[in-house]
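(Protein data)
===
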Amino acid sequence: MTPIPFPRPLINQILQQAQQAEDSEICGLVSARSGQPVHCYPVANAAEKPAHRFRMHPQQQIEAMRQIRERGEELFAIYHSHPHTPALPSATDLREATYPDALYIIISLATEGTLEMRGFHLQNGNIEDVDFVVA
């Protein structure tokens, strides 16, 4: 699969959000125009145990999707972090992946000295790695 160009400012925004909430999973959406990522929409984590899972705050997710539509963009990716585990989809991530056309981005803080950000296509329990190229 061809690596996906991902703008450095969006990568930095997502990584900074993950660093600021180091003990809780962060989450949000990335929109695209003509298949190219253009905006990041952080959404609050409304999970009961945000250190171990994420659940997007329903109203904030609806508002982010409304803004994406109004800007003439499309949903490109759904991101979240794993504060204490690798940047790999968990069984819960696979089970709850309900947007088959979206890229799933996972950021891990469980690395020494650097954050890890990986992309995946998750469909029907299958995991396909997606490479990024900083644009």
